[in-house]
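Friendly challenge for the regulars: who can give me the structure tokens for this chain first? No prize, just bragging rights.
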Amino acid sequence: MRRVLLLGDLVSRIHAHFAPRVTEIEFYEDWSGIDYIRVHNNDGTFELFQFDTTPTADQLIIDILAATSISDVTGFEIVADHHVISTREREKKFEEITKNYGIPADLTPGEWYKASIDEALRDIALAEWEQWFDYHIPVNLR
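First reply, four minutes later:
Bragging rights claimed.
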């Protein structure tokens, strides 16, 4: 058994922790970890959390998890090569996006370029699908 939190849930907890300030979370290109967390202040400055800051981005996340009732975490690992999505969840999101953007439901996301819809709408639909998919990457909690 593994104790897991979805990446999207982790991102939501980070944003909620710093609300109402705008928070940016930048992942490594291979999704293996967090490159930095940037929290914008109201005066044009920002706070930056990385591997070499105090606290580190990882320690900040552990502290945020503790503040949101997940208090026994000592570390975490983003498992970028897996996704935790049921077929039902995937079909529901797919139906929602194809309906919202007028994309034929018989095309897979990889085939959406074939749809005769506005290119900008297609790009937005693809970005929404990819973010939703990526946010279902599991984060193993230790």
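The chain has a mean pLDDT of 94. Residues 87-135 form one domain. Your move, everyone else.
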